[in-house]
Write a structure and sequence with these properties.
eight-stranded mixed sheet; alpha/beta; about 525 residues; seven-stranded mixed sheet
Length: about 525
């Protein structure tokens, strides 16, 4: 991840590849935002006019590059749009976060850039730091390993064709982010920057996992990754392999994973604080590849199904973040890991599974597998009697149809908790929307041979999936369900601080929830 530095340096005085200034959408054209005064002065006060001539308006995420004039020690000036400020002149943290992310992404391959954006308070500083670090993300694990010679314009001795060693790599993230106008010795500023570094690192951890292809990330290797991190951050970890799952009666997880050569796992990873008064359980769907099983997905719908473990990645990253931040709360993550594949041993439509809870489920569609692994994990997580449990899953295409590609749905068995989770998501900068769990949809899951079927009415399918999961949450347990099927994997172009591919959706919401629990205000 990019290095982060706070600096009191003037935007004009910093030696860097580029300096970033904000542009506001004013009534009469673009206006330079606070932080960019020194750069504007170097332009003779005409930076806004120059940007307008180039077509810039100050709209959110708009990026314009200019050669730096005399008086600015950076080589390049990058102006990024912030949109219109609030009536009181303040800037929405999410607008700052997105602007910093867009700028960092536009400066990929650079060594150092100064961000001269409005950072008048700790919240604004945190947004700029977080946005820049998230926007600078790049997944490069599988690049540049084939040819040692001319593939990247090198001569085989580590030099470019111009004879210089190394050189900027446009595929690499910006190496260093320097936030200007900050107060490095101020406790609030320092704490905001440190938190932003941790949160961004854990979002990027989740992104890396989601982007890793399924031939390298399968249940056993995912579990090993968790075990490695557990050693580093002092987490307790327990891994149930296929034998332990069979002995424990985890019929849902086993039923989904039985068609694959890579057997399933249930991973428990826990952070505890000696003075914690609340315990939060997080449950993540971890289908490391989803072919649909016997109910095979059609061509065009399976190419990105490595991302079906995004919920487990978010839960894992959130537990690590809680540990790194030293939050005064106990956070236990449950990762239900399986690979959903068709074979002679796979679960068939019409089969009946006996779940960990003892309930029986008629499997009408093997592509509705996420709810099966989550049901077992939810039942197990609730046995520890947490103060609240939240599951996260790329669960239904129906939720994408309802809310689009950038918003996740929030369902719960408690209206106040649903509202709290929605508000925390908004605070964190994640788009979410509260969704109902209508009782009348439950009847559609009645089965003539089992306690419940894994499918119900087609219309409202995302809500039906939530109602199925609710069946496995004991009465009196506060529970919420996040369906992140839309925003978990970005198949279009990058925007703001969001890259193409894995996004790390829900990590920041879960961290905010853990912070709220640590403050003793869970609901």
């Amino acid at each position: 991840m990019s290095a982060l530095t706070l600096s009191t340096s003037s935007a004009a005085a910093l030696r860097a590849d580029a300096v970033v200034v904000g542009v506001v959408k004013g009534t009469d054209g673009p206006v330079i935002a606070p932080g960019g005064e020194a750069v504007d002065q170097a332009f003779g006060g005409s930076l806004a006019a120059t940007l307008e001539t180039l077509g810039a308006s100050g709209g959110e995420g708009e990026v314009t590059k200019l050669p730096a004039p005399d008086g600015v020690k950076a080589d390049l000036v990058l102006a990024v749009g912030l949109g219109a400020p609030a009536e009181d002149g303040s800037y929405d943290p999410e607008a700052l976060r997105r602007a910093a992310g867009a700028a960092a992404r536009a400066l990929a391959g650079g060594k150092k850039a100064g961000f001269a954006l409005p950072v008048g308070d700790a919240a604004s500083l945190a947004a700029v730091c977080e946005g820049a670090l998230l926007g600078a993300y790049a997944f490069t694990a599988y690049r540049g390993k084939a040819d040692k010679n001319d593939r990247n314009g090198k001569d085989g001795k580590g030099k470019g064709k111009d004879g210089r060693k190394g050189g900027a790599d446009s595929g690499a993230p910006l190496a260093e982010v320097v936030v200007l106008g900050a107060k490095p010795r101020d406790k609030a500023h320092k704490a905001a920057a440190e938190r932003a570094e941790v949160v961004a690192a854990e979002v990027n951890r989740a992104r890396d996992l989601v982007n890793t292809p399924s031939n390298d990330l399968f249940p056993k290797s995912f579990a090993a990754t968790v075990q490695s991190a557990a050693k580093e951050y002092g987490l307790a970890v327990e891994v149930l392999d296929e034998k332990a799952l069979a002995k424990g009666g985890y019929g849902g997880i086993l039923g989904v994973g039985k068609g694959s050569a890579n057997p399933p796992r249930l991973v428990r990873v826990a952070y505890t604080h000696a003075k914690a008064e609340k315990t939060l359980a997080l449950v993540g769907k971890g289908i490391t590849y989803d072919s649909g099983g016997i109910s095979l997905k059609p061509a065009g719908h399976n190419e990105t199904m490595k991302c079906d473990m995004s919920g487990a990645a978010a839960v894992f990253a959130a537990v690590v973040a809680a540990a790194r931040l030293g939050l005064r709360v106990n956070v236990t993550g449950w990762l239900a890991l399986a690979e959903n594949m068709p074979s002679g041993t796979a679960t068939r439509p019409g089969d009946v599974l006996t779940m960990y809870s003892g309930k029986t489920v008629e499997v009408l569609n093997t592509d509705a597998e996420g709810r099966l692994v989550l049901a077992d994990a939810l039942t197990r997580a609730c046995e520890e009697k947490p103060d609240a449990v939240v599951d996260v899953a790329t669960l239904t295409g129906a939720m994408v149809l309802a809310l689009g590609n950038r918003t996740f749905g929030v369902m719960a068995n408690d209206d106040a908790f649903r509202t709290a989770v929605h508000e925390l998501a908004t605070e964190a900068g994640e788009q979410a929307w509260p969704m109902p769990l209508p009782d009348h949809l439950r009847k559609g899951m009645d089965s003539p041979v089992a306690d419940i079927a894994n499918m119900g009415e087609r219309m409202g399918g995302g809500l039906v999936a939530g109602l199925f999961l609710k069946e496995f949450v004991p009465d009196g347990t506060t529970w919420a369900h996040l369906d992140i099927a839309g925003p978990a994997f970005n198949e279009s172009g990058p925007f703001g601080y969001t890259p193409k591919g894995g996004t790390g959706s829900a990590v920041r919401t879960l961290v905010r929830l853990a912070e709220r629990a640590a403050a003793g205000d869970l609901v």
